[in-house]
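User: Just a sanity check before I run the rest of the batch. Below are the structure tokens for the first item. I only need the designed sequence back.
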């Protein structure tokens, strides 16, 4: 039977790779490989997944050096010389084995004020937002983020500056800045214009290249840079 050599990160930050041999199957995904190891070779292997069909983003890991959704990654497309090397998502602390600690990723969404601030009450009628308006089209282009962390793991600025808010939190902030119903615009711009915010982005595009939803956090961050500079010049936010 044809087999695949798989090296898997085991333990915490100071762990090491452990080698396994897994049977090759037709249309096998990387998540199938991890599941085989956990079910048949070592039940103590820790990893995350939920939907298996590219909807939840929880199966994201580093596959041969790149962050990917493992349920949507076929072994045929990534195995180099019949070998796979699997590790938790980069730029995040390791909980154990293939599980990264996502807390600081989501803490940064909060720091970027990634929460909708309502202007209406239950008694108000539905807000009408023109689907053809520029702001609505900008928000639409970025709204489908599911918070998987792939872009964050791909960003070198996050690696160099752990305080940097990162592509996903800034992308989220941009969708809210483009939402006419949201009342948090000024505070959010101040939150994302600081040292660790949008102006730290080097426009390297790794986030955009790697996003499995084909979103462009780079474009959203460029929008935040323009909006925060305009707000600065208008005296609406203070210089960082
Ligand atoms: S922008 Fe894309 S890669 Fe980043 S968290 Fe959202 S869905 Fe994942
Ligand atoms: S474009 Fe900005 S946020 Fe995206 S990977 Fe590059 S530096 Fe990071
Ligand atoms: S398990 Fe949900 S996206 Fe992979």
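Assistant: Here's the designed sequence for the first item:
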């Amino acid at each position: 039977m044809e087999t695949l050599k798989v090296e898997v990160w085991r333990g915490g930050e100071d762990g090491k790779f452990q080698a396994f041999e897994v049977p090759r199957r037709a249309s096998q995904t990387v998540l199938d490989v991890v599941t085989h190891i956990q079910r048949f070779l070592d039940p103590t292997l820790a990893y995350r997944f939920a939907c298996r069909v590219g909807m939840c983003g929880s199966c994201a890991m580093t596959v041969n050096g790149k962050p990917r959704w493992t349920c949507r990654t076929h072994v045929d497309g990534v195995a180099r010389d019949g070998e796979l090397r699997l590790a938790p998502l980069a730029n995040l602390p390791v909980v154990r084995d293939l599980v990264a600690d996502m807390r600081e990723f989501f803490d940064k969404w909060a720091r970027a004020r990634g929460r909708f601030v309502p202007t209406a009450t239950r008694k108000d009628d539905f807000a009408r937002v023109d689907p053809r308006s520029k702001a609505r089209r900008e928000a639409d282009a970025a709204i489908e983020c599911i918070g998987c962390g792939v872009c964050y793991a791909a960003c070198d600025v996050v690696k160099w500056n752990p305080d940097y808010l990162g592509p996903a939190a800034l992308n989220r902030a941009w969708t809210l800045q483009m939402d006419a119903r949201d009342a948090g615009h000024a505070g959010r711009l101040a939150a994302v214009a600081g040292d660790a915010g949008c102006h730290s982005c080097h426009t390297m595009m790794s986030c955009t290249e790697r996003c499995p939803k084909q979103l462009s956090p780079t474009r959203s961050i460029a929008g935040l840079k323009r909006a925060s500079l305009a707000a600065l010049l208008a005296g609406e936010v203070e210089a960082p």
